[in-house]
Design goal:
Elements lengths: L2 H10 L4 E5 L7 H9 L4 E4 L14 H14 L2 E5 L11 H21 L3 E4 L2 E2 L5 H18 L6 E5 L7 E2 L3 H10 L6 E6 H6 L7 H14 L5 E5 L2 E2 L10 E2 L9 H7 L8 E4 L8 H13 L3
Parallel strand pairs: 1-2, 1-12, 2-3, 3-4, 4-6, 6-8, 8-9, 9-12
Antiparallel strand pairs: 5-7, 10-11
Helix pairs in contact: 2-3, 4-5, 5-6
Length: about 300
């Protein structure tokens, strides 16, 4: 059974795909076990250490065990790349290192049958947004030439616009998609904290509808594959990327119900990236709040 058939089946039999980012400490399959413990129907994970460039190759036991547990649990899995990677770097050595590291991430996703790989588009590090955006496009095109048969969809994540990070405007995400040589291999990950910090209002139904209408007009809701569902420590338009527990930040609780009950998003995975607390207790609490917002 192919990756996408498997996930299409999983999506059609669940009302909401909801979960959190899970640790792979002790082995990649442990992320699925942690998700199952919290009754997640979707999880996000790294495929390797997020703070190291190199990774120990996945063994056949790693791959077989993960795939088996993935099928047994029915949990949809999304990957996130390492935060060290910058596909928009003006430093040629770092850019080359980033591209090769991302290529490895794609290959690991392929082996584990993970369909979506989420990435912050990149940072221009002072050379300007236009140059940075073009460098990201070049990086994406380089990756396509190296992975002609890959089924992995790269999901460009909306960012808060902190520092020189790109992707904080819907138009920037649209540019990357439009200029890419293989745009059908690109999707989008919308982060609620990030778009709010970038200046997109979502705290009442009218504002939510306006923001999502703009997303659809500029990017297209058909491109949206993943939703990161996080509250924000900082206020609207702060351009500060700081996640907060659901209902404890400036977004509040009610707006998350708009996302979770939006019929246009019903097949998408909603994933927490908030602080976990002791033994994941905060994941349990945050997921409980979000489940309580889902209309029956």
């Amino acid at each position: 059974m192919g990756i996408f058939n498997f996930y299409d089946f999983g999506q059609s039999r669940r009302k909401v795909l909801l979960g959190a980012h899970m640790s792979i400490s002790g082995g990649v399959a442990n992320a699925l076990l942690a998700g199952k413990y919290l009754d997640c129907t979707a999880i996000q994970m790294f495929t390797k250490s997020s703070n190291q460039w190199k990774a120990k190759p996945l063994s056949e036991d790693d791959i077989t065990g993960f795939r088996l547990l993935q099928r047994q649990s029915g949990i949809m899995t999304v990957a996130h790349d390492s935060y060290l990677i910058n596909l928009g770097s003006p430093d040629k050595a770092l850019l080359d290192k980033s591209r090769k590291a991302f290529l490895e991430e794609m290959e690991r996703c392929e082996k584990l049958e993970i369909p979506y790989l989420v990435t912050h588009p990149g940072s221009h590090v002072g050379v300007g947004e236009e140059i940075g955006l073009h460098t990201i496009v070049e990086s994406l095109n380089w990756l396509y030439t190296k992975t002609p048969d890959s089924k992995v969809i790269i999901c460009l994540e909306t960012t808060a616009g902190q520092g020189s990070n790109l992707g904080y405007k819907f138009e920037q995400i649209a540019f990357l998609i439009d200029e890419s040589e293989e745009s059908d291999r690109l999707g989008v990950c919308l982060d609620t904290c990030h778009i709010f910090a970038a200046g997109y209002e979502i705290r009442n139904k009218k504002a939510y509808n306006k923001t999502m209408t703009e997303f659809d007009r500029v990017i297209g809701l058909n491109r949206l594959k993943v939703v990161h569902i996080n509250d924000s420590k900082k206020d609207l338009g702060s351009k500060v990327d700081r996640h907060e527990h659901i209902g404890k930040g400036f977004i509040g609780i009610e707006p998350f119900g708009y996302f979770l009950n939006d019929r246009r998003l019903k097949k998408l995975p909603f994933l927490l990236e908030t602080p976990k607390g002791d033994d994941g207790e905060m994941d349990d609490i945050n997921l409980g709040i979000l489940r309580g917002l889902i209309k029956k």
